[in-house]
Write a structure and sequence with these properties.
Blueprint: E1 3-13, E2 19-29, E3 33-38, H1 44-51, E4 59-64, E5 67-68, H2 74-81, E6 84-87, H3 99-109, H4 114-127, H5 143-155, E7 161-165, H6 173-190, E8 193-197, E9 210-215, E10 218-222
Parallel strand pairs: 3-8, 3-9, 6-7, 7-8
Antiparallel strand pairs: 1-2, 1-4, 4-5, 9-10
Helix pairs in contact: 3-4, 3-5, 4-5, 5-6
Length: about 220
C-alpha cells in the first residue's frame, strides 16, 4: 500500500530553543483514517501544520504526497496544496465572499471549468444541507454552518488528503455529526486519506481507523 506521509526522525519547533515534536518516526497509508490526540500544547496542531507546509521540519524528513517538505520550494508546495483539503477549527472563510464563492475557491485555484465548478458547488451545498444559504456571507451563519462550509470547501477539489484540526471543537451535536459523516464518506467512498486532530474520538465512528497519541514530543500508535 502506498504511503501518503512518511516522517523520518522528524523534529518540529517554532524557535531554536524549544523542540515540540522530537525525532519521531511514523508513516500513514494512502486511504487510511487517522486520529491524532494529545493534551493541549502537546504538538497536535503543530504536527498538522507541518503536513501542509506551514511549518518546515527543524530536523529529519517529512514526505507528504511524494514531496519532501524540508527545504521545499514555493512552487512544489503550491502544487502539493492543490491536492490537500484543510479544515481549520476557526473555519478561515473569506468574510467578504458568499458561501458559494468560498466553496469555489479551491476549484478556481485548480483551474476547473465554470460549469464543472458550479455543478460541484451545488452538489456540495446540498450535501452539507446549506443550499438555501448559498448567497449569504460567513458572518450571517452560525459556527456549525460555517464549519460545514469549510468542510465543503475542503472536499470541493477531490483532494488526496484531508487535514482537519479540531473540526468539531466548537460545534453543536447536529453539525458535529454531519462533519463526522462527511469525513467518513470522503474516506470510504472517495478513498481520501483523512487525518483529524482532536481531543475526543467520537464513539459513533463506523469505520476502521488508526489512533496516534502525542506525549512529551513523541508520537505512538494506540491499539
Amino acid at each position: 500500500m502506498d504511503k501518503v506521509i512518511i516522517a523520518d526522525n522528524l523534529s518540529l519547533s517554532y524557535s531554536n530553543n524549544e523542540t515540540i515534536i522530537n525525532k519521531v518516526n511514523f508513516s500513514i497509508n494512502s486511504g487510511s483514517f487517522i486520529f491524532i490526540t494529545g493534551a493541549s500544547g502537546s504538538g497536535k496542531s503543530t504536527l498538522l501544520k507541518s503536513m501542509y507546509g506551514a511549518l518546515k521540519p527543524k530536523e529529519g524528513s517529512l514526505v507528504v504526497g511524494g514531496v519532501e517538505l524540508r527545504g521545499v520550494s514555493g512552487s512544489k508546495l503550491n502544487f502539493l496544496r492543490k491536492h490537500i483539503g484543510i479544515v481549520f477549527q476557526d473555519y478561515k472563510l473569506v468574510k467578504e465572499w458568499t458561501i458559494e464563492k468560498n466553496i469555489m475557491l479551491p476549484l478556481i485555484i485548480n483551474g476547473y471549468e465554470k460549469t464543472v465548478t458550479q455543478n460541484q458547488v451545488d452538489s456540495l451545498l446540498k450535501h452539507v444541507r446549506l443550499k438555501h444559504q448559498a448567497g449569504k456571507y460567513p458572518l450571517e451563519l452560525s459556527g456549525g454552518e460555517q464549519q460545514r462550509v469549510a468542510m465543503a470547501r475542503a472536499l470541493s477539489h477531490n483532494p488526496i488528503l484531508i487535514l482537519a484540526d479540531e473540526p468539531t471543537g466548537n460545534l453543536d451535536d447536529y453539525s458535529s455529526q454531519l462533519i463526522w459523516n462527511l469525513l467518513e464518506g470522503a474516506n470510504t467512498q472517495l478513498k481520501t486519506t483523512v487525518i483529524v486532530v482532536t481531543h475526543h474520538i467520537p464513539e459513533t465512528m463506523n469505520i476502521e481507523y488508526k489512533h496516534f497519541h502525542i506525549e512529551y514530543g513523541s508520537i505512538h500508535e494506540v491499539n
